[in-house]
Amino acid sequence: MSQNFPRPAGPSRGGGRRSRALVPTLIVLAVLAVAYLLVVNFWTERLWFDSVDFTRVFTTQLITRSSLFVVFGLLMAVSIVVNGVIAYRLRPSYRPMSVEQQSLDRYRDAIDPVRSWVLGAAALLVGIIAGASAGGEWTTFQLWLNGTEFGVEDPQFGTDLGFYAFSYPWWRYVVSFGFAIVTLGLIVAAITHYIYGGIRLQTAGEKVSPAAQGHLSLLIGLFILLKGVAYWLDRYAMLIDDNDLFTGGNYADINALLPAKTILIFVAGICAILFFVNVWRRSWMLPGIGAGLLVLSAVLLSGLWPFIVQQFQVNPTEADREAPYIERNIAATRDAYDIDGVDIQSYEAETTVEAGQLADDAGSIPGIRLMDPTVIPPAYQQLQQVRGFYTFAQPADVDRYEINGEVVDSVVAAREIDISGISSEQQNWVNQHTVYTHGFGMVAAYGNRSETDGSPDWIEEDIPSRGDLGDYEPRVYFGENSPEYSIVGAPEGEEPVEYDIPEDPETGGERRNTYDGNGGVSIGSFFNRVLYATKFQEANILLSDRVNSESQILYDRGPRQRVEKVAPWLTVDSNPFPTVVDGRLVWVIDAYTTLNSYPYSQRVSLEEATSDSRIARPALAAQPDDYINYARNSVKATVDAYDGTVTLYEWDNSDPVLQAWMDVFPESVTPRSEISDDLMNHLRYPEDMFKLQRRMLEQYHVTDPFTFYEGTDRWIVPNDPTSNLDIDQPPYYQSIQLPGSDEGVFSLTTTYTPRGRQNLIAFMTVNADARHEDYGQLTALRLPGDTQIDGPGQVANAFESNEEIASQLTLLGAGEGANVEFGNLLTLPVGGGLLYVQPVYVVRQAGDAVYPLLRRVMVRFGTEIGFDTSLQGALDDVFRGESGVETEEEGEIEDAEVPEPEGEGTDTEEPPESEQEPPADSEQSPPADEPDEEAPPADGTLEEAIADAQQAWEDAQAAQSEGRWADYGEALDRLEDALSRADQLSQGE
What we know:
Blueprint (H helix, E strand, L loop, with lengths): L12 H39 L3 H35 L9 H13 L3 H21 L2 H9 L14 H35 L14 H28 L13 H31 L3 H30 L3 H19 L6 E4 L30 H8 L5 E2 L5 E7 L2 E9 L1 E2 L11 H7 L3 E2 L1 E9 L5 E6 L4 E2 L7 E2 L8 E4 L9 E4 L9 E3 L7 E2 L3 H10 L4 H4 L8 E4 L3 H8 L4 E2 L4 E5 L2 E12 L8 E2 H5 L16 E2 L1 E11 L5 E5 L5 H9 L12 H4 L6 H14 L4 H6 L4 E2 L15 E5 L8 E10 L7 E6 L10 E5 L9 H10 L1 H10 L5 E5 L3 E3 L6 E12 L2 E13 L2 E5 L2 H8 L63 H21 L2 H24 L1
Parallel strand pairs: 1-27
Antiparallel strand pairs: 2-5, 3-4, 4-7, 6-10, 7-8, 8-9, 11-15, 12-13, 14-15, 16-18, 17-18, 18-21, 19-20, 21-22, 23-25, 24-25, 25-26, 26-27, 28-30, 29-30, 30-31, 31-32
Helix pairs in contact: 1-2, 1-13, 2-4, 2-6, 5-6, 6-7, 7-8, 8-9, 22-24, 24-25
């Protein structure tokens, strides 16, 4: 009867099969997706390197990385598998009954069916990790393979320095990898022996089977043998390791630790032999004694004995004991950082002034830079932006151009595209990636003068570009602010779509452009479009009509980024600069070869040594926090702003590191002889190299080991007095004439103060003109210790505490929206002493226009201070009314209103085919209204007007803080009246 009842429904067999099939399907799909992404990344990288003609760099890296990955990954995987299999095959056929073995039976039963899979998976995983680690050492491997000799021997072993630079790092890695292989093999073997009864920890009688004992003895012997090799390498490592005083071996290292390491090599060798013999002898007694002796020897000889020598021999007379090794450190450091040729001269600086004192300094004074590259970029932005979607790098850069037969220092910046400047309504894919593709032109201003209103005096300006730089290709497709990617190019006859210039002089209307260079990767084929649509996760690359058969995609467009990709072996300077060379706008980038294994050379953090108040600005890239102890400016690189061409020029052909890399990548570096004359005119000494050298010379200007040890003559780079941060003052490019020289030279300069004090102790410069026969010559003017010469911080305090300057600065910053900003505080060795010059800017808001205008110049020589609307006037104030030299300023600065920015007003343009208007310019302030008739003369004196203005300003501040708004308004009226009277009286004097 029960058969009449329906059976309850059971689980669906089909559903179970589908569930079981889904998991492997998802796994396969995930693997395919990862493989596809890897192929996309690989192939797009290959296409990019093809586009810049550095395919060999890509293939060499790929082959080297892949080979190391395969070889070292296989070594690790094979070690895992072989030791696991051997341990399994050596398992005892009989295992004594015990609680321990009964517990392990469950694990053996669970593992046996999948033993091969588990071992294979573990070997694969560890092998991949090991292979990836080895692939990351491709540069170490290539230097070992292609390294050459330095021709210089270390002072301890007489070994060529090429061993430390090229061979030692690779052998150290190989030994460490050997330790990893043996250690993991030992772990796998021990676990397998334990699971299958070869090791019995809780069983009475024999703890390790003879077979397991032989296997483990072999592995331990290999480990100890590697330890002996490591001891041998440790001897050389003493010369590149740090101690409490310096980098390199000190007295205790050389006289105690070095003999200890030599002894330990032999002890480790004997111990390893005992373990190898134990493969057949199979008794732990002798190997155990050997291992104990090795451990005891290591503790006593390499730990306790050097400590005793340090405490009882060195410390009581440390200066005498360490002097020979300090001498080694000084010599090696000065050579490694190329500072051994520094010319340190005594400079008896004058502090008194007299008329005509600067008559012999015509090579320095006319070129004093009043346009600070870190302050004036907002003026470039407001006066030369032209459209809201253009921008300029901050800070600007310093370069030189020949104008009317005279080489002048200039402050330059490239006008780059700024996608963020497009209005929100126009932010779409078409505009961002096919219309606004490039910047336009170079903007340059005289560094040593301004217009009479305080704005920059332009050498090159506007769109289309006009000025004194001649004809050149002005379009900037590759720059520091270029978009992530742009799609350019079109078939012949197609209507141009790229926004080019707002007003064509020929047609009077907007002009469009079609890119005709070869700087990008072709995406005319469907395959390449799919690749880049995946890479940038953008379907429009695949679907948009803007992508055609002639389209190229431009990406990785930053100058530093491009050099770093084609030359991954170089350290790139943090500050590329644009220049016009041979009819092209190019970026110039300095690059360095570095090492961290130069014997006895002092190690330093690259990031810390090159940081200053300029690098603290977000626009500049800081160097990585890598430690180095050798550097050479071996390469000068250029990146063409139009087609992105990267050219690496050999600069220091005596550098063995450069020669090694040129062997790794033949034909990737262009000979120095191919640098054009025009390019040579713009090459300069690099900032980061100079900052490294000045940091090392803080301590290593001293060559006497006892003075070095005492630290009584330590120099310090002073903090930047114009910055609110506790950070170094940057070096400054300026043309100066050193004492005793007949000509001014483009130089990079810095100052030093004694440690713990603010007065000046030295002024240092390097010849930065690549055309000059003394290029790279470091010269330090050392001041006498018995003469007080104020340092930059003290001079800045003197300026601020001067009553006349303080009152004038109060007036300058008293207007609504006004703010006083100080420019770079320059130091020049002129007039037999040291001259400080600092420009003063006023940042005043007029509508949306906010940018600095040069208003005053402050000068100090000795204790005398000059303050005027021109450098000439300030110098004459200091030097009894006649400095003896003429500046190149075109007149005194007039205290006028903020001028209207140049450009095209607030018109908007409509880009064809995009159906979007480009962003309107920011509103520009109208020019100040000019009075219809001359104002009546003011009453009183200038001093009274200034005093009235000061009092009115204080009254206004007090009223505002207390909420007395009627009194506040009345005080502002009095302030305006006093400022007006002061202006009239100052013009009437």
